[in-house]
Hints:
The chain is of the alpha+beta class.
Amino acid sequence: MGNWVAFMNVPNPYQGNYKLLIVIPILLVAAALFFIPRIEKGVDFRGGTLVTMQTKEWVDASELSSALTERGFSVSSVKSLPNPAGYEVEVEIERDNRLTHAEELKTEFFSKIDEASRLEADVTATNQSPEAIEKYVAARKEIDLVANGLFEIALLSQNSSSYPNTNELKKTIGLIYGKILDDSSEKLASALSELVAYESAQFNEVSASLSEKFLEKATGVVVYSTIFVSIVVFLIFRTFIPSLAVLIGAAADVLIALGAMGLFGIPLTLASFAALLMLVGFSLDTDVLLTMRVIKRKEGTARGRAYDAMKTGMTMSMALLLSFICLFILASVTHINTYYEISAVAIAGLLGDVVATWLLNAVIVLAYVERGGHTGETDRPFLSSIFSG
């Protein structure tokens, strides 16, 4: 690609009153904070059913959504998109209260059944003291109450107390919960077959507990990665302001990408979350490149070194940006959601990284150096040899 910045004769933006550059990223971050609450969770993080159908004819998304709603389904979204084989129809159904309650009861039942089985075995085998019997009876009443709730949801006129032992009840509850899920899937499949003449259909269901686990793990990844990144950045520079500038630049990049997700309606899914994590790594790369060039090197002026770092960093960014633009074009043609979400978030984040690194992080680092911060080879930062060059 060559030194494209020099080819375009872009002047050094850090000459003159460069501190005014910080206004642009501040405004972008403020706008991003306005749009971030509009981000919707995808099926991965919210739970529900995603149905992908292949059809020969175009399907009116609004009509299909209305028809499904009339049949009692909570429709999140319906998309009808052309592809080389015809049309791809995506229907996203929210997990209804009935299924959510059934899952809660199933989880509660299986969390209590082992203890009830132990107490039952204890009473049956050796210990028939009044205290042991009382504990078993209380435990059995608890699981009977939960099991009867599942029987009611499954529209079965059964009573848990009719089962002679907990092992029989445990097997039955597993089958009943499976029946509830199957009935729900069959109801949806039947409705869709009446409304859409599809050639093939794929059902992807994510339970509420699994979506909560996804969200919990994703939150943990963000928290722990932030802690470890903060530690490593501080070990590299051993001074507060440059370390803080690197972290601020990375945070601003992610915020801008999140704001774009809210603005353009990109849902938070496992794919878009993975793209956000990738942006953190790339943003740190350019931020560290800039900070090391300005603080560690001695040749020329700090503003000149920042400009040289910008030329290198922008070349890296543009190369990566072009690759994701190609992926975005491919996603637009094939209508593969995973490709679209990753490429759209990456494009927004890479553009945000240009602003966050060269108009925010650079201003902070240059102001630090020009006010007498440490530069050059003296007081070498820890691990600086790894990042030299």
